[in-house]
């Protein structure tokens, strides 16, 4: 019998499953980093994880606090200069998956991580784009993870930080962007894919125990469902244990616990 799990654990594990051994993944901090490392520690041990600070082939034993966390450099195959990271690796077409989060997201996969409200007089100033705008246009595909809420999943983003499918349809192509853009959205309730023609995100799978109404009530645009909506398989014992151990090691290490230090390397 499967263990009980939280919606966020389901989201992270569902995101980890879509990654494969051959992927070269540009990893965002937070949920994307957790998903990528669960994949590395379970079914995709040879996946290449790249962080924005220039670390290539990082195999962190704990989740990094930021792209500048020493854990990344310590465990990477090599570390290159940031200009080389972007020009040679990212803009050179060597990144298969860009894994991003979002403060605001619209139905076409456009991401806002800049401001909430008017740009000149914002209600909230967010961390900004960092390398995400370049990742969104240069990585071959973009996967997005975020918890569902009407505050986050909006009809129209307040600011275009990272370009998704713009106004939908062939907008990327018309702008001369040759990459696929957002091809997958994984939330704590469902898995979404863009409609082949309109590029509007459509629910293709509901997580175990989630009803359609719950998805509708936590989304700021009218939700569309695929003709056949599947059910996301519940996390396995291995997946849950791997994720929880990763979080436990991370918490202990960042608190400076000696327990965390003794556990380092357990799953490397």
Task: Please characterize this protein's 3D structure.
The chain is α/β, with parallel strands linked by helices and 268 residues long. Helices cover 29% and strands 21% of the residues. Helix 1 crosses helix 2 and helix 2 crosses helix 8. The longest helix is centred in the last third of the chain and has 18 residues, at 237-254.
Summarize the topology:
Layout: H1 7-17, E1 24-27, H2 31-41, E2 48-50, E3 55-56, H3 70-75, E4 78-79, H4 82-90, E5 97-100, E6 104-105, E7 111-112, E8 115-117, E9 122-125, H5 132-138, E10 141-145, H6 171-174, E11 182-186, E12 190-194, E13 201-207, H7 212-217, E14 225-232, H8 237-254, H9 258-263
Main sheet specs: 8 strands, mixed
Assigned CATH superfamily = Glutaconate Coenzyme A-transferase
Main sheet: which strands, in order across?
2-1-5-10-11-12-13-14
CATH topology: Glutaconate Coenzyme A-transferase
Number of strands: 14
Q: So what's the overall shape?
A: globular
**Tally of helical segments:** 9
């Amino acid at each position: 019998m499967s263990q009980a799990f939280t919606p966020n654990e389901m989201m992270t594990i569902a995101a980890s499953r879509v990654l494969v051994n051959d992927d070269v993944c540009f990893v965002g901090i937070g949920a994307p980093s957790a998903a990528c490392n669960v994949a590395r520690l379970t079914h995709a041990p040879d996946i290449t994880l790249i962080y924005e600070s220039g670390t290539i082939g990082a195999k962190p034993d704990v989740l990094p606090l930021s792209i500048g966390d020493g854990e990344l450099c310590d465990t990477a195959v090599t570390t290159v200069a940031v200009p080389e990271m972007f020009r040679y690796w990212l803009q050179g077409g060597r990144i298969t998956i860009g894994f991003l989060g979002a403060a605001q997201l619209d139905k076409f996969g456009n991401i806002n991580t800049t401001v909430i409200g008017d740009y000149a007089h914002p209600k909230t100033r967010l961390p900004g784009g960092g390398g995400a705008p370049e990742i969104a246009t240069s990585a071959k595909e973009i996967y997005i993870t975020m918890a569902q809420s009407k505050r986050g999943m909006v009809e129209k983003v307040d600011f275009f930080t990272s370009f998704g499918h713009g106004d939908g349809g062939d907008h990327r192509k018309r702008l001369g962007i040759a990459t696929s853009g957002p091809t997958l959205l994984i939330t704590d309730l469902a898995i979404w894919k863009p409609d082949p023609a309109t590029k509007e995100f459509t629910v293709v799978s509901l997580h175990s125990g989630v009803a359609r109404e719950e998805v509708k009530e936590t989304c700021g645009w009218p939700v569309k469902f695929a003709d056949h909506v599947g059910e996301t398989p519940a996390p396995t014992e291995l997946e849950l244990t791997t994720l929880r151990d990763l979080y436990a090691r991370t918490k202990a290490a960042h608190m400076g616990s000696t327990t965390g230090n003794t556990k380092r390397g357990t799953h490397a």
